Amino acid sequence: MRLSGFDRALVALACLAGLLGVALSAAAAHIPGADSLKTAAQFLLFHAPAILALAGFGAAGLARPGLMRMASGLLVLGLILFCGDLSVRTWLQQPLFPMAAPIGGFALMGGWLVGAIGALIPQPRNPPQ
Prior knowledge:
The chain is mainly alpha-helical. It has helices at 5-30, 35-59, 65-92, 100-120. It is elongated, with a radius of gyration of 16 Å.
């Protein structure tokens, strides 16, 4: 199995999400009342392995690669918007931009939905070369 450049980018972004999840967990432990950072850290840590799995399933041909990439991309976008907004609100006392967190939340839900669809639609028996 060879990973495409896009798949490699998704894996790298998933690892970055894990790293940021650990960093935000540590920061939240030292900042009184940083519940938003705790939430952002949890979302990053929960979704990082999901992105890795989706990218891996698609690259291995175990599920529809295009849909798995789309699902992973939506999860990454959702994390950037949702967790970014929560973090910026904590540190800068202002939103990333209006409606960033809800848009990010919908992107996350969309990623999970597309992942489910990609897993349920069977692969063609003889994929085109």
